[in-house]
Specification:
There is one protein chain. With 322 residues, the protein is an alpha/beta fold. The chain has a domain of 72 residues. The chain is 50% helix and 7% strand. A five-stranded parallel sheet has the order 2-3-1-4-5, sandwiched between helices. The mean pLDDT is 93.
């Protein structure tokens, strides 16, 4: 069974799709991993993995990654078992997924980490047979949702760039991967889940049952601790209620601002444009300064204070690596 990754811009419905697919008998999908990108940034520290000591350090680093620790895995990291190079590297990175799937009585595993939209080549380098599901949602609705969560951008200008970058990365990956990448629009998924979800399952070669659509029955503990408030709507079931909120809740000037940055991407994915007025006359530097000042505050509250700094080194490295 091939592993797979669900990617896309944050707040595009990736968590909903994860909970749906996790209800399959075939795969278990944990909360966001992040460690594949994090290990890629420091891979050289572990050498060629031809010795037990090198492998053990890598396997232990992966096993103790802050995201993996949230999975509450039983047992211990794997042993090298004669592997080296790429095979050893894959074994160390795949071990937490295999352990998570085993704990949940599933034969296969998947991953839902939107951040990996910018790291698809690394995913395929480690797992060359992996398939990718790229979720795309109207960027204006994404912007509204991003502005309400502490990890998101602070203004529509920054949200537009974040969404545009994610969509562009997905389009470039689709050109390279061909039939190994499936792009799904959030709006199509919630409008006709009884059609869209079986198509995704067929692409991933996993079994489908109509009961999978009862996402509201998913155990609450499948949501990462501390993030429950960000996904309350999921427990009302699959719904199109959030589609087109930007038409009612976004000012015409903000609509115009978003479309001035990402209008072409909106149109390429079938979203209507041209309903705004005139973008605000605000210098890009002002938007940038506002975005970074607010994000710095959120970073301090969320990651330094609330999470007690356990992920800060990785977060800093991700930011510097962009």
């Amino acid at each position: 069974m091939r592993p797979f990754f669900i990617v896309g811009c944050d707040r595009s419905g990736t968590t909903m799709l994860r909970l749906i697919l996790d209800r399959s008998d075939d795969v278990a999908i944990p909360t966001e991993s992040m460690f594949i990108a994090d290990m890629a940034a420091i891979r050289s520290r572990f050498g060629d993995l031809a010795g037990d000591e090198q492998f053990d350090r890598l396997a232990e680093t992966v096993w103790r990654h802050p995201k993996v620790r949230e999975w509450r895995l039983e047992g211990a990291p794997p042993r090298r078992a004669g592997r080296s190079g790429g095979a050893a590297y894959r074994a160390a990175l795949e071990a937490p997924y295999l352990a998570y799937a085993a704990q949940h009585g599933k034969p296969g595993w998947g991953d839902k980490t939107p951040y990996y939209i910018g790291h698809i080549d690394e995913l395929r380098r480690v797992f060359p047979e992996a398939r990718i599901v790229n979720l795309v949602r109207d960027g204006r609705d994404v912007a509204l949702s991003l502005l309400r969560v502490p990890f998101g951008p602070a203004n529509v200008w920054a949200a537009a760039y974040q969404w545009r970058d994610a969509v562009d990365a997905g389009e470039r990956a689709a050109e390279r991967l061909g039939h190994d990448l499936l792009t799904v629009r959030y709006e199509d998924l919630v409008a006709a889940p009884e059609t869209a979800v079986p198509a995704v399952c067929e692409f991933l070669e996993i079994g489908y049952r109509p009961e999978m659509l009862a996402v509201e029955e998913s155990p609450p503990e499948l949501i990462a601790a501390g993030q429950e408030a960000w996904f309350r709507e999921l427990y009302g079931g699959i719904s199109a209620n959030s589609v087109g909120k930007w038409r009612r809740q976004m000012s015409r000037s903000d609509i115009a601002l978003f479309e001035s940055i990402a209008g072409e991407e909106l149109e390429r994915h079938g979203y209507q444009t041209g309903l705004g007025s005139t973008p605000p006359h605000v210098p890009a530097a002002a938007y940038l300064a506002h975005n970074w000042s607010v994000k710095l505050w959120h970073f301090t509250v969320l990651h330094v204070w609330r999470e007690r700094g356990r992920e800060v080194p990785y977060l800093v490295r991700r930011r510097l690596g962009r």
